[in-house]
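During the no-cost extension, the postdoctoral fellow (Dr. R.K.) reprocessed legacy sequence entries with the updated structure-token encoder. One reprocessed record is reproduced below for audit purposes.
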Amino acid sequence: MSLAIFDLDNTLLSTDSDHAWGEFLLEQGAVDEVSYREANDRFKADYDAGRLDMMAFLAVALKPLSDNSPEQLAAWHQQFMASKIEPHILPRAEELIARHRSRGDTLLIITATNRFITAPIAERLGIDDLIAVDPEMIDGRYTGRVDGIPSFQEGKVTRLNAWLEDRDETLDGAWFYSDSQNDLPLLELVDHPVAVDPDPALREVAESRSWKIISLRD
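Re-encoded structure tokens follow.
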């Protein structure tokens, strides 16, 4: 038995749930159409290029959580799951998860997308353990600020190490599946790094280091 770690967006899903949530908010009229769409698309391009300013992104991405009640957010998230997430859950990803589960591996999702968006997705995939960006909540409402270290780039390593210490787990024999060059710090740590439908930069690294490259797309 070992640890099987999965990135979420464009790895287990054929979409970016963070960007999709922004598109959903635009469809609901919950954010300014011009400025928010420009920011949502710009931040996604920066992420894809490996140059995202995470704190600047979070200042924009977490604001709608503080602007709306928990009840409204929960209702929106149910619609979001049905319209934006369920169609992008990859059958081959579910098969991969099932193979690791059948071997008795510990399953963990680690993502740079915030927990409000991703916790229901992890639950839908049957994965109990999740490391995600934690939006700060005070007195039952989101503040629009981040709580702790964002699980992004080297932050994923920092957050994972804290999780391992808390759980008395190790990375011996661990797997990590990711599509993104942003996850190179963590891919370099595990015994079994796997590039999943990788972006061009990650594919180049994976090929040069003879890492396994797979596709979970049809």
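The first strand starts at residue 3 and ends at 6. The chain has one domain: 3-214. The remaining legacy entries will be reprocessed before the final report is submitted.
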